[in-house]
Specification:
Layout lengths: L61 H8 L2 H4 L3 E3 L10 E3 H4 L81 H6 L3 H40 L22 H8 L3 E8 L2 E9 L5 E4 L1 H4 L7 E5 L5 E10 L4 E6 L21 E6 L7 E16 L10 E8 L11 E3 L5 E10 L2 E4 L10 E5 H14 L4 E3 L13 E2 L16 H4 L7 E5 L2 E2 L3 H9 L6 E8 L2 E8 L1 E3 L3
Antiparallel strand pairs: 1-2, 3-4, 3-6, 4-5, 5-8, 6-7, 7-8, 9-10, 9-12, 10-11, 11-15, 12-13, 13-14, 13-15, 16-22, 17-18, 18-19, 18-20, 20-21
């Protein structure tokens, strides 16, 4: 065999990057033999038998590799035989030209259990190329077939479509390069913090609006529950309407029978106007009322009558008497009148129920109710003229049924709808007065008994004037003692006791004091007049008379006086 050259490399061998000779030797038949494994340790040149196959070096553990590397043989520049390849001449090459570089060490500790691939070093292969992080398409982006393998640079991914659910984390790709998420989200950490704060602000605002709406709804529900007991529409229960007529003796039944015969009077005249009430006496149109209501019409004034149904008519004065405070007017050309029945005032008892009807303060057809509070209550009213000609003396019925200005002349009826009195006066703060001058009812109303009114009305209709019962004496109205004292002389200087009159025939003289009428005490001259006028002319009276401290009883027949 040929010997190898003393120096250099075998023919045809190409040194590698590490300085090892891993070239290919040409065989005599033109074939090449495989080079030695790159990582085999070599302290110099080795021989190889071309007839024997090349065996790979036995694996060594990392410790052995370190020992081989640090052996003195590797440090000395000794020469070793060159390997034989394909009949190449044997020779030696310098060891410093054939020594390989230091073998890389594994990155992990030796495995004492020699578990491949970590037990002993196996065949070493070149490291894969370094893969630099490159942007990858956003999660969910469609990639057409033939997409390059992971790590292969790809052209920039176009901007993604509509935002994906989950916000910026919906586009998160754990394999993307750092900063890609920030670039895609359009801002850095500061902008994300601002977005988070804005989100929290929107959340707080929504919570406040929700709380406001909930509070409003709760308040409304609470209000409905408090006021109406529920949330639904309130429907109130209502009893079925009563049918049929009211009981005849009830206030409603009495009013139903009485109202058609009650009228309202509007009077105008030289002394001003007046408002009052009246009621129908008969079918011929006679209406009874108070004298003070129609007094102004006697001087050429007018009287307008308004009936319950709203019809109106003119009326004329038939007659009146201020001492009784009664007057009669008449309407003409009116049909279908409803006269009211007259009762008996002498049969009335205290506590009997009564109903008063009138037009208080021009409120027509007003109905009030009460009882008889007292009987034979002596009252006087009027006296505005100063000569006593307009003073009325009434032995009245007292009632607590409300009577007000405008009720004057209206009927006071009992439970059988019969007239038992004519409403005339009330007790005001300054005393008993006619209703047209008072402020209103205080529960003390007075009515002229119908028995007296009936006689006066008949005389006014039949004669145009009324007569007054008298005893034929002139009284001392200034007497302050108990009873009624006969005066010293009459008006104009005549005698106090009318000659030939009822008192003169019973030996009543000036200075006598009358203390009782029919056994009822009298306290003053007004009361004596009231007691006398409550009777008719011709009635007989029993009087108790005192003279010089002695009392005696006398009986006399009432006379009559013509007020004209």
């Amino acid at each position: 065999m040929d010997k190898a050259k003393p120096t250099g490399t075998p023919d045809g061998a190409v040194p590698d990057a590490t300085g090892d000779s891993h070239g290919t030797a040409a065989e005599p038949d033109g074939r090449a033999t495989a080079p030695e494994a790159t990582g085999a340790p070599a302290a110099g040149l080795t021989k190889a038998d071309p007839a024997e196959p090349v065996q790979p070096p036995a694996p060594t553990v990392p410790g052995q590799a370190e020992e081989a590397t640090s052996s003195p043989a590797a440090e000395s520049p000794a020469t070793v035989p060159a390997p034989r390849t394909g009949g190449a001449p044997d020779g030696l090459v310098p060891a410093q030209q054939q020594a390989p570089a230091e073998r890389p060490r594994p990155l992990h500790a030796p495995d004492p259990y020699s578990t491949p691939p970590y037990g002993e070093p196996g065949p070493w292969a070149p490291a894969p190329p370094v893969q630099r992080p490159v942007p990858t398409p956003a999660h969910g982006t469609y990639l057409p077939p033939g997409t390059p393998a992971h790590g292969t640079p790809v052209p920039p991914v176009p901007e993604a479509g509509p935002p994906l659910p989950g916000g910026e984390w919906g586009r998160y790709d754990p394999w993307a390069a750092p900063g890609a998420l920030v670039a895609e989200s359009g801002g850095g950490p500061g902008e994300r913090r601002r977005e988070r704060r804005a989100g929290r602000g929107r959340l707080v605002g929504a919570a406040l609006v929700l709380a406001l709406v909930a509070g409003s709804v709760g308040g409304y529900v609470g209000m409905r529950l408090e006021r109406h007991g529920g949330l639904g529409t309130v429907e109130l229960e209502q009893a079925s309407g009563q049918t049929g007529e009211r009981a005849p003796d009830s206030v409603a039944g009495i009013a139903a029978r009485t109202l058609p015969g009650v009228v309202t009077l509007h009077v105008s005249g030289g002394d001003g106007g007046a408002l009052g009430t009246g009621f129908v006496l008969d079918g011929r149109g006679h209406i009874l009322t108070n004298h003070h209501v129609v007094e102004s019409a006697s001087d050429g004034g007018s009287i307008r009558v308004t009936f319950n149904g709203g019809e109106t008519a003119r009326a004329r004065m038939v007659g009146g008497d201020p001492g009784y405070d009664l007057a009669v007017v008449k309407v003409s050309g009116v049909s279908g009148l409803t006269p009211l029945p007259l009762g008996d005032s002498d049969e009335v008892r205290v506590g009997d129920p009564v109903v008063a009807i009138g037009a208080p303060f021009d409120l027509a057809n007003t109905v009030t109710s009460g009882i008889i509070s007292a009987k034979e209550r002596p009252i006087t009213a009027g006296g505005e003229k100063g000569d006593g000609s307009d003073i009325s003396y009434v032995d009245a019925l007292q009632t607590d049924a409300p009577i007000n200005p405008g009720n004057s002349g209206g009927p006071l009826v009992d439970e059988r709808a019969r007239v038992i009195g004519i409403n005339s006066a009330i007790h005001a703060a300054g005393g008993v007065d006619r209703q047209d001058d008072s402020a209103g009812s205080v529960g003390l109303g007075f009515a002229i008994p119908v028995n007296q009114a009936k006689r006066v009305a008949e005389e006014l209709i039949n004669h145009g004037r009324a007569t007054h019962p008298v005893i034929g004496v002139t009284l001392d109205m200034g007497y302050e003692g108990e009873g009624a004292k006969v005066g010293g002389e009459a008006a104009g200087g005549g005698p106090a006791v009318t000659p030939g009159g009822p008192a003169d025939r019973t030996d009543i003289a000036a200075g006598d004091v009358i203390t009782e009428v029919d056994g009822v005490p009298v306290a003053s001259g007004e009361e004596l007049i009231i007691k006398i006028r409550s009777h008719r002319p011709g009635d007989r009276l029993d009087l108790t008379v005192e003279r010089d401290g002695e009392s005696r009883r006398v009986t006399l027949e009432l006379g009559s006086s013509d007020p004209s």
